[in-house]
Amino acid sequence: MRPVALSYRAMKIALLFASFFLWAAELRAQIQVDLKLPRLQFIAYEPVIATIGITNLAGRDVDLHDADGQAWFGFEITGAEGQPITPLKITGEQPPLKIEAGKRVTRKINLTPLYQVHDFGAYHVRAHIYFSDLSKFYYSQTKVFEVTDARPIWQKTVGIPEGSPGPGSVRTYSLLTNRFPDHTSLYVRVEDKDSGIVYATYSLGRILSFDEPQAELDQVNRLHVLHCAAPKNWAYSQIGLNGELLAHSSFMETKARPRLTHRTDGAVTVRGGMLEAPAPAAQSARNAAPKLSDRPPEMPKE
Question: Which residue from 290, 270, 160 is spatially nearest to 226, judged by alpha carbons?
Answer without folding.
Answer: 270
